[in-house]
Design brief:
339 residues, Alpha-Beta Plaits, N-utilizing Substance Protein B Homolog, Chain A, two-stranded parallel sheet, globular
């Protein structure tokens, strides 16, 4: 049993976690440091960034400016993740203590998640580009505007969003609070210059030097060599595929979903359809799980009569696999929201 428990203990997310995601690029602004007590940060009101308005107020603004609420939520979640070390999955959880998604339609939540994930994946490139356009940075008291700029830059550089929409909504976000309004023209100018420089920015962006944390890039270079490290960093820039673990009949579900069956038994899809809209989701016939993450439970070969303790269990994919195989599973995780 000890060996089985150790396989899951090795998944501890707090081991070797970097202090932040700033990938060696000098800070664009004096962003706040993560608090010493990360749980205390959950008590922060919905005030930053941009001193976000209440859900009711945001709803009124969104009616006048379609897409505004999704961008406000994206900027706030980026701040929560990078500056306050909140896990991405918890930020998008329906039971999150500090939710930025109140009142958003599923389509807006999907857009918010797209903005956040690509901004995190290419944060170093975005920050380096903005640093070149903002030589003096932003005044400390307006440092929270960085998240507005990052969210807009992610759309301009990497998403299929019209440039004018990304710029106009970012300017609108800046003008929501009277004290930020004087910087609306600065936000407008920086983003329009970003559009002009887009081709050069994308051409000169380096996956290892810009979009990989320094500590991790050094490890990869030491372990895999320069070429291998660059190949890994380049792969991390790509939009991930959607892998599913099915509880039974993988060939049947592969045909229904238009998926490929991997040698490990997982299904792999290339789709932009929301997960909740796929056949079998509502019935719980499968769940999202990276193909690599599905391997440990398969290697255990657990079955009826086997008792397994799954530490750091959230979101529960391995536990579900083991339970489906007939094992008696006890799950433990620090986050009640994700279990």
């Amino acid at each position: 049993m000890l060996g089985k428990v150790q396989l899951f203990v090795l998944g501890d997310k707090d081991v070797w976690r970097p202090r932040n995601l700033r990938s060696g690029v000098s800070s664009l602004t004096a962003s706040p440091r993560p608090p010493a007590d990360r749980w205390r940060s959950r008590k922060v009101s919905n005030g930053r960034p941009n001193q976000l308005a209440s859900g009711e107020s945001r709803g009124r603004e969104s009616e006048q400016c379609p897409g505004l609420a999704a961008r406000l939520a994206a900027a706030a979640i980026l701040s929560d993740i990078v500056a306050r070390c909140h896990p991405l999955d918890e930020c998008f959880s329906g039971t999150a203590i500090l939710s930025r998604l109140g009142g958003l339609e599923p389509r807006d939540i999907a857009l918010t998640r797209s903005i956040v994930t690509v901004a995190l994946r290419r944060l170093g490139t975005i920050r380096a580009a903005l640093a070149g356009l903002l030589e003096k940075g932003l005044p400390r008291q307006f440092a929270h505007l960085e998240w507005t700029l990052i969210a807009a830059s992610a759309q301009i550089l990497f998403l299929d969003v019209p440039d004018h929409a990304a710029v106009d909504i970012a300017v609108h976000m800046t003008r929501l609070e009277a004290k930020n309004a004087p910087y609306a023209s600065l936000v407008n100018g920086v983003l329009r210059n970003l559009i002009r420089a887009r081709e050069k920015i994308l051409l000169t962006s380096d996956p290892l030097d810009h979009d990989t944390p320094v500590w991790l890039a050094e490890r990869w270079r030491k372990t895999y060599g320069e070429a291998g490290a660059h190949a890994i960093a380049s792969a991390h820039r790509e939009e991930p595929t959607l892998d599913l673990t099915v509880l039974s009949d993988p060939l049947i579900w592969a045909e229904r979903l238009g998926a490929n069956v991997l040698p490990t038994g997982s299904l792999r899809l290339l789709t932009t359809v929301p997960v909740t809209g796929l056949a079998g989701f509502a019935e719980g016939r499968w769940f999202v799980q990276d193909a690599a993450a599905a391997l440990p439970a398969r290697l255990l070969r657990a079955g009826p009569g086997t008792r397994v303790a799954d530490f750091c269990a959230a979101p529960g994919g391995k536990a579900a696999q083991l339970a489906a195989a007939g094992a008696e599973v006890t799950t433990i995780d620090r986050s009640a929201e994700r279990l």
